[in-house]
Amino acid sequence: MKIAVLGGGNGSFAAAGDFAMSGHEVRLWRRNGDEVAAHREDGSRILVKDHNGRHDAKLALVTTDIGEAVSGTELILCPAPAFAQPDIARLLAPHLRDGQVVFLPPATFGSMIFALALRDCGNRAKASFAETGTLPWLTRKHGPFEVAITIRAKRLPVGVFPLSEAPHALDVIGRAFPGAIEPCGDALSGALMNAGPIIHPPLIVMNAGPIEHFERWDIHKEGTQAAIRRVTDALDAERIAVREKLGYGAPHFPLAHHYAKEGELWMYGRGSHDRLTDSGDWRERLVLRDHRYMREDLRLGLSLLVSVAGLAGVATPLARAFLAIGGAICGEDFAEGGRTLAALGLGHLSQPELQKLLREGF
Question: How far apart are CA 121 and CA 119, in angstroms?
Answer without folding.
Answer: 6
